[in-house]
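Exercise 7b. Backbone tokens:
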């Protein structure tokens, strides 16, 4: 098809230049360049691989040696003889395609594995993008095996001050630590026979220990007025 101005550079293509040997007469040095009958306009002389009589010609933009390209013409440094043969190849040039317009690069044209974590915005990956099994929810957590699982909830803490958490291997519950002799179900208590830290019996309370009992050096047991400590 015809173009207004120069023909496209055929970026990246290689074209066989039309034979101009029929115009050689030993005096002309400038000849029109065409490919398939359409004028070509190389951006520089080095885009033309020219051969005269089987000898590659040197591209020289100064015109001193071999040939140079001026617009759509090839200009030799000396006139080819009428008996000379000619062939040439036009090499298309690389061009800067610039920045693609918005919304023109689709998924198929993004290189595989080209998008890394560095290119991802914070919070760009949501629950819908995860491949985890199970059902996400406010009471679930994501396990290390990429599966959603329910969180074992604690029993109510209301009214359970001072108790500890225990389980029967199925359900969790709060329990009271045996600290009162009147509530123990084990029948006896054990305690250390050495008192290694200062201790004060609470005012209004009595205390009892199974002897013998050793009180370490620089350690004291304080018995307030009105209280009794019995070592049995």
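Sequence design result:
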């Amino acid at each position: 098809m015809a173009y207004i101005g120069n023909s496209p550079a055929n970026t990246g293509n290689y074209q066989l230049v039309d034979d101009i040997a029929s115009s050689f007469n030993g005096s002309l040095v400038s000849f029109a360049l065409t490919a398939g009958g359409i004028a070509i306009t190389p951006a520089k002389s080095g885009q033309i691989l020219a051969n005269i009589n089987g000898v590659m010609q040197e591209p020289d933009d100064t015109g001193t040696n071999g040939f140079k390209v001026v617009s759509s013409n090839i200009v030799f440094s000396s006139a080819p003889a009428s008996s000379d043969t000619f062939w040439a190849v036009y090499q298309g040039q690389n061009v800067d395609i610039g920045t693609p317009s918005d919304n023109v690069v689709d998924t198929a044209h993004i290189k595989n594995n080209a998008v890394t974590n560095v290119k991802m915005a914070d919070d760009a990956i949501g629950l819908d993008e995860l491949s985890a099994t199970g059902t996400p929810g406010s009471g679930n957590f994501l396990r290390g095996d990429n599966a959603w699982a329910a969180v074992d909830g604690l029993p109510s803490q209301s009214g359970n001050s001072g108790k500890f958490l225990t389980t029967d291997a199925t359900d969790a519950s709060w329990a009271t630590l045996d600290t009162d002799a009147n509530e123990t179900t084990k029948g006896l208590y054990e305690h250390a026979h050495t008192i290694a830290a200062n201790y004060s019996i609470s005012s209004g309370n009595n205390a009892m220990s199974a002897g013998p009992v050793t009180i370490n050096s620089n350690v004291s047991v304080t018995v307030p007025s009105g209280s009794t400590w019995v070592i049995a």
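Instructor comment: The radius of gyration is 49 Å. Residues 196 and 217 are 8 Å apart (CA to CA).
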